[in-house]
Design brief:
Blueprint lengths: L20 H11 L41 H22 L25 E4 L3 E8 L8 E8 L2 E11 L7 H6 L11 E8 L5 E8 L19 H22 L11 E3 L7 E3 L18 H5 L10 H17 L9 H11 L1 H6 L6 H10 L10 H8 L19 E3 L2 E3 L2 H10 L1 H9 L1 H10 L3 H17 L5 H13 L5 E3 L2 E3 L4 H8 L3 H12 L2 H8 L5 H9 L3 H5 L7 H9 L21 H9 L11 H10 L16 H18 L6 H10 L1 H5 L4 H17 L2 H8 L2 H30 L1 H36 L1
Antiparallel strand pairs: 1-2, 2-3, 3-4, 4-6, 5-6, 7-8, 9-10, 11-12
Length: about 775
């Protein structure tokens, strides 16, 4: 099982004592004289042996745990009904069917083909998750809920949210909520990657389970409304300290809506906020519960916002709970946004319904459209303490003397016009350039500065952008000028500046969103948006400044650049999504090499220890980064690429105080075998191979690099090779010469023989003559 590093006490040995909760339920009902409802028992599972060190055999978890013998009849009946619903949902899930709900309670994901006998997984050996016991009543849009148990306290009611494979959690919120223990929100206990019984791995988040059920299951089904005292005492007071703590931590919830509230127990007196971690901020929020600007954005691109966004959502949620229904059931999201702009959010949501007098003041304050006028947590605290404040009125946009038409839509102010341009962007292209718009701004709206700003935006875009995307950028710049409070809107897709990063995580599985975000960054629209704000907040300025370098990165497709690099640049808390790290949780650059080292020791490791996600993550997270490290990775030469990769990983090891990684070094040495094959001298090659093996065993990549990239050794080998080749060439030439000049050599030999014979004959003649002379005259 996977073991990921995180905070928390070390695991202790588990107790093996077990009580069947279904049997306990029967006993409790018999004591109260009740007949047991016809509920199909979950199949009894054999004990499952946990892989965590020191863990004992643990029987499977049960679907319900009763903690009090004194539950009343209604509670027991409700619990039994809950069990029946859970059993039905489990059966549906096991067969791959889904259940449809509305208003943020999403489709139930399928179980993914899990067999009944392989149902338990472990998070760090501390929490055990029984995927055979789903808790559909606690499921989220991007995650199924399952029963979980802490190994040191089995009586503690817990649940685990298992994210769908394509979903990404809120990494910043996970860190921000570490140790968060306020009563107004489900407590986060742990998170990480777990083995999934159906194969692969999933991201798991373990939370405390509420004692009661969801307050609202379906926004489309009306029910009895709540009273003002029930709202104040059951929701606002318990939630106040939670909002204070969230604000102090710099964390937003961004998922406050009726379908994400739970009762703390079966008495249904107190409510708590549900989770906000299984998807990007506000991803599942209906437009009804979002500010104008957030509702105008793509659900994935709304961003974390501020605590003021949560207060607005809380105000809209209270309106719904008071009525027990949607206050504007017949309005589309587009129509609701227009009405909020024209009359203000309070009037759009509560203007036509009866609101208790005691709640008018806080609702007006929380539903202010201008964030600067909206109530703060401190204002809510004062009101709950009995200190009444001066009434606040919404500042509505100036209304034109005559409308500006976009198709058949009449726009009486610049914000509705900007919204209409964003929705009907193709029709807006000629209108943005038209004199008609300039005249309307100057004469009907008396907006001389805005008219001049629009002219400048049009001229700037036309001067610097041509070809594909020019018209879309023109409309985007026009929307920013007309409605600077709104999100960046491009080709029908809106994103806030702080929502670009979260949207990129969703865009990994959405080609249209991915293309739109690429063009938004390339067009530098975030920078233009910040420039259009009168007084932008510091966080938006910081994000825009960080994005100044991204256009040059996202337009390139080399490894270490492109969309993947920008994904990690805009999401600094995000884990590395490399497929190699499917079973790892790597969020910091210092964790890369240990993870690769573990992977290098497995038999199923890939041939190459890198991919676009890994290199993009490294480039975005490294300190003192040099783009020169990426250039060798783009080389068509495999040897240059391999040595460049080793140099990159050696840089990471040296600059992040990473210890020896012998598993990865051995992996790299095997990948670098072609480099050693280039050595020509057999003895030298064997000597270098021995050095490589020793360096790999040491796990120090710089030593391995020094051996592999030893210029002097390579030059000596090349010099010796060239010398040997030259000598061989000379010998070969001589042999060739001898073979091709045989006839000439025979003639030369004959001539030389004749010459030698003549000389010998002459010498012999002289000798004979001398002897004859001596004999005759001696």
């Amino acid at each position: 099982m996977v073991d990921v590093t995180s905070g928390g006490p070390p695991p202790d040995d588990l107790d093996t004592e077990w009580v069947d909760p279904m049997e306990l339920l029967r006993q409790e009902q018999e004591k109260m004289g009740m007949a047991m409802p016809e509920v199909v028992d979950a199949p009894v599972m054999a004990p499952v042996t946990f892989a965590a060190e020191g863990a004992a055999d643990m029987p499977a978890l049960a679907p319900l745990e009763l903690t009090s013998v004194e539950q009343d009849i209604d509670d027991v009946a409700g619990a039994a009904a809950g069990i029946a619903a859970a059993a039905a949902a489990t059966a549906a899930a096991m067969t791959g069917t889904t259940s449809q709900t509305a208003g943020g309670v999403s489709n139930e994901p399928s179980m993914g083909g899990i067999d009944d006998d392989a149902l338990v997984t472990s998070l760090r050996g501390r929490y055990f998750i029984n995927v055979g016991e789903p808790l559909p009543e606690y499921a989220s849009a991007n995650a199924m809920a399952f029963e979980a148990m802490f190994r040191n306290d089995r009586s503690r009611p817990l649940m685990a949210l298992i994210l769908e494979p394509e979903a990404q959690p809120r990494y910043d919120a996970l860190e921000g909520l570490r140790g968060f223990a306020m009563n107004g929100m489900l407590k986060l206990l742990d998170w990480g990657v777990v083995d999934w019984p159906a194969g692969g791995s999933r991201f798991a988040i373990v939370l405390e389970r509420p004692g009661g059920y969801r307050v609202i299951n379906d926004l489309t089904i009306p029910q009895s409304g709540m009273g003002d005292e029930e709202i104040v005492e059951g929701l606002l007071r318990p939630l106040l300290n939670t909002l204070k703590d969230l604000a102090a931590r710099g964390v937003t919830h961004r998922a406050i809506r009726p379908t994400n509230l739970f009762y703390t127990d079966m008495t249904r007196r107190t409510m708590v906020l549900g989770e906000c971690l299984t998807g990007v901020p506000a991803l599942d929020q209906p437009a009804l519960f979002e500010t104008i600007e957030s509702a105008q954005a793509h659900p994935a691109g709304r961003g974390p916002g501020t605590i003021q966004n949560d207060l607005y959502s809380l105000g809209a949620t209270i309106v719904y709970l008071l009525l027990g229904r949607n206050p504007v059931p017949d309005k589309s999201d587009d129509a609701l946004i227009r009405e909020k702009i024209e009359v203000g959010s309070y009037m759009a949501l509560a203007g036509q319904v009866r609101v208790p007098v005691s709640l008018i003041e806080p609702l007006r304050g929380m539903l202010m459209d201008d964030e600067r006028d909206r109530w703060t947590v401190a204002d809510l605290d004062l009101w709950l303490s009995g200190r009444r404040q001066s009434p606040r009125q919404s500042k509505l946009p100036a209304r034109a003397s005559r409308p500006f038409l976009v198709g058949e839509e009449e726009c009486f102010n610049v914000r509705t016009l900007g919204h209409a341009f964003a929705v009907n962007w193709q029709e807006a292209v000629p209108l943005v350039r038209s004199r008609q718009l300039d005249s309307w701004l100057r004469r009907s709206m008396m907006e001389e500065p805005k008219a001049e700003a629009l002219i400048n935006a049009v001229y700037s875009t036309a001067s610097h952008v041509t070809g594909r995307g020019a018209e879309e950028r023109l409309v985007a710049r026009g929307c920013i000028t007309l409605d600077p409070k709104g999100p960046i809107r491009y080709r029908g897709i809106g994103v806030t500046v702080d929502g670009i990063g979260p949207a990129m995580t969703v865009a990994l599985n959405d080609a249209d969103l991915r293309q739109a975000l690429t063009e938004i960054i390339s067009a530098r629209l975030p920078i233009h948006w910040v420039a259009a704000q009168g007084k932008p907040n510091s966080e938006d300025v910081r994000i825009a400044q960080a994005m100044e370098k991204l256009p040059g990165i996202i337009e390139q497709q080399a490894v270490g650049l492109g969309f993947e690099r920008c994904l990690y640049e805009t999401n600094p808390m995000m884990r590395c999504l490399s497929p190699m790290f499917e079973r790892e949780f790597v969020v910091d650059i210092s964790e890369v090499m240990p993870a690769l080292d573990r992977l290098g020791q497995t038999p199923d490791r890939p041939d190459m220890p890198y991919d676009r996600h890994l290199i993009g993550f490294i480039a975005a997270r490294s300190r003192r980064w040099s783009e020169d490290l990426l250039r060798p990775l783009a080389s068509p030469d495999t040897i240059i690429r391999a040595i460049g990769l080793l140099r990159l990983f050696s840089y990471i090891q040296e600059n992040n105080e990473v210890g020896p990684v012998p598993g990865f070094a051995t992996w790299m040495s095997q990948m670098l075998a072609p480099v050693l094959d280039n050595y020509h001298h057999r003895a030298r090659r064997q000597r270098v191979q021995a050095k490589v093996q020793a360096a790999a065993e040491s796990g120090i990549l710089s030593e391995l690099l020094a051996v592999i990239d030893d210029l002097a050794e390579r030059q000596a080998d090349n010099y010796g090779f060239h010398q040997a080749r030259e000598e061989y060439r000379q010998i070969e030439a001589e042999l060739t010469d001898m073979e091709t000049n045989v006839d000439q050599r025979e003639d030369d030999a004959r001539m030389m023989g004749e010459q030698i014979a003549a000389v010998i004959g002459a010498v012999l003649t002289c000798i004979v003559t001398a002897i004859t002379f001596l004999v005759l005259y001696a």
